[in-house]
Task: structure prediction
Amino acid sequence: MRRLLTTLTGMFAILATSITLGFAFEPRASEVRPTAVSQPANAARAASIALFEVKEKMDRKDGVLLVDARPVEDYRTGRIKGAISLPLAQFEERYPQVQSQFLADTELIVYCSGSSCGLSSALADALLAKGHSRVRVFSGGWPEWLAAGYPTESGGSG
Amino acid sequence: MNRISNVGRQLLFSPKLALICRIVLGLTFVFAGWSKIGHPAAVIENVLSYNILPDYLVRPFALILPWLEVVSGLLLISGLLTYSAGAMLAVLNLTFLIAVGVNLLRGSSIDCGCFGQSETLSWWIFGRDVVYFLMSCQILATSRGFLSLDNVLLTYWHGRSDRSLSID
Result:
């Protein structure tokens, strides 16, 4: 019994130390490194955009609209605050419903589940093909946004 | 038959085997944790791909996990809080086993994210985690470690209390 108590106390101490170290050495948003340096095989023709630039544009409310290319279930579970859902798999079906939000001077920033996810590049290509010239791909996507601790939201109908 | 079970029992409770397990497991987890520190976005991407934790827990988990691995690994190598570090790694390994097993059964071909290198999930990785889990259980099964700081501190502590008793 005493050995069990000592072991549990030690485990608690290890956990507390790890939590302290984890949050003490938490990288600042500006230090969050991209998840990968290489471009995905199906890189979009749209230009890419870095995390800090996305945040700056969001803060300035600089005529940007974030577009989530992931499946609706992932969008509902968690997303960048203010993003709209346009899953690549349902593009033709969903595009007419969200098209009204894509004003002529609005810059569309497309993202998905990170560097290994090709959905954002493919969605950017589809949007370019629909005639939207101001489309950029945030290839760090949801994981990089989460890592930076920037505002998120969940729920909604997508 | 009896002889085999005796050998098995001796092996299970062998302090020398526990020392080997401590060093191998300790070094493995220090390396695994160290390769993740400073790369929260990559760890988050990886944890998300397992599709097990809710999104709001992913960030704290990704920040704490590397340190949990490094701290437990270092304690195991030095033999300080040996049981606690062994139990912590047993819990961690069990968690990894469940996460890997569930995704293998789902048929996901995701990156393991184990040592900061690209390694697709496979039954080989599951088997490796089983070995790590058994190693941590072996550490828990043996008496307080051979060549460990726990032993040094306990000897020092008992020496001091014996001396104070004799002074009294």
In short: The interface with chain B takes residues 3, 6-11, 13-15, 17-19, 21-23, 25-27, 32-36, 77-78, 113-116, 140, 142-144, 146-149, 152, 154 of chain A (CB under 8 Å). The first strand of chain A starts at residue 47 and ends at 48. The mean pLDDT of chain A is 85. Strands of chain A lie at 47-48, 64-68, 79-80, 84-85, 107-111, 135-137, 152-153.
